[in-house]
Write a structure and sequence with these properties.
Residues 63-76 have a biased composition (Polar residues). The chain has 12 helices and 6 strands. It has helices spanning 20-44, 57-64, 71-88, 119-126, 138-161, 174-182, 187-190, 214-233, 252-263, 267-270, 287-306, 319-329; strands at 106-110, 163-168, 195-197, 244-249, 275-280, 311-314. Strand 5, helix 11 and strand 6 form a beta-alpha-beta unit.
Length: 337
């Protein structure tokens, strides 16, 4: 979702208002949860073929800023290909009625801010006087370098599992702008992904400014954009039924939105099973915290897509619940989690 206002980080969605005490409480809870998730993520690292996080950020960004000859992208392609191929090598044979998990029947919808791009943290870290963007320090640069690897892996893997779409409440062209500024190594993957700017589905006079109706308004923007994405994807042949939809984002309202969209799907497909799956990430994550979450989700993604039923995964849940999901969804070759 993100919290960037009109500024040097112009275009990212604005946060709903929080008092200083509420923001401090949220940050304490976030830090505690990120510590738990970092433990899970660190156990996955030795099972990945990713470029080590210790590699210098300077070297990484020099390589990833050159689209088309991108060593970081190539490493991420190899990593996600390995994840997909090793997992699918264990797939049982399937009959036609079980093709819901096929590439051409699965729709994967990502949010952008605080799901793939740590917009809230970037605003706090980099927004200087007069709303200008300050230079990143070495620590932030290294954290962003590691995040580029994680985002590249999960996007490339997701594209091997289904049609990937980004739906955002940001203002055009924020997704491309923020990617260029902070995560240039993600550009080769982002080029292949449609981006829907949800606010463009509402007329200016329809936009609600009152605080009470803010969440309903945000939900409605996502509903319209997600409905568009679903209709486009599931209309490639006559009477194509909706089968397998996955939404990943940091806000509850976007997951409520996809459930509403699926519940209201066209009548010709309403009697057929559509598996609706949501993965909720932590709100306002740190850069390192977002990297940990994406590592975990990447290790679960194949089995999440293959699950024959609805799912509701929340990475802000208790460690016990996360252990349960890890046991259920971890890739077969990830034996340490």
């Amino acid at each position: 979702m993100g919290c960037c206002s009109s500024s040097g980080l112009s275009g990212a969605p604005r946060t709903t208002g929080k008092t200083p005490d509420e923001a401090a409480e949220r940050d304490i809870a976030r830090d505690a949860q990120e510590t738990v998730l970092a433990k899970f993520a660190s156990q996955l690292e030795t099972d990945y073929d990713c470029t080590p996080a210790s590699e210098s950020s300077e070297k990484h960004h020099a390589a990833t800023s050159s689209v088309g000859t991108d060593d970081g992208a190539n490493s991420s392609v190899k990593s996600s290909r390995s994840l997909a191929l090793r997992s699918f090598s264990h797939r049982p044979s399937i009959t036609s009625q079980h093709q819901y998990a096929d590439l051409n029947q699965t729709l994967i919808i990502f949010d952008w801010d605080d799901t793939l791009c740590p917009s809230t943290c970037l605003r706090r870290t980099l927004e200087g006087p007069n709303q200008t963007i300050q230079q990143t320090d070495d620590k932030t640069e290294a954290a962003l370098s590691n995040l580029v690897d994680k985002v590249s892996v999960i996007l490339n893997l997701a594209q091997k599992l289904g049609q990937v779409v980004i739906v955002t409440n940001a203002v055009r062209p924020w997704v491309q702008t923020s990617c260029n500024l902070f995560m240039p190594g993600v550009q080769p993957f982002l080029r292949r992904i449609p981006v829907i700017y949800a606010l463009e589905s509402l007329q200016l006079q329809q936009r609600v400014r009152g605080k009470k109706q803010k969440e309903d308004w945000l939900t409605e923007t996502k509903v319209r954009a997600m409905r568009t994405a679903c209709h486009r994807f599931y209309s490639r042949y006559n009477d194509q039924s909706w089968k397998n939809v996955l939404s990943l984002g940091d806000a509850f309202f976007e997951h409520n939105a996809i459930r509403q969209v699926v519940a209201d799907r066209p009548e010709y497909t309403s009697q057929k099973k559509c598996r609706t799956k949501t993965v909720k990430l932590i709100q306002a994550p740190t850069i390192a915290g977002l990297s940990s979450q994406l590592s975990i989700i990447a290790s679960w993604l194949v089995k999440i897509v293959r699950a024959d039923g609805d799912l509701d995964i929340d990475l802000e849940s208790s460690e016990e619940k996360i252990l349960g999901w890890a046991a259920e969804f971890k890739s077969d070759f990830n034996s340490k989690v």
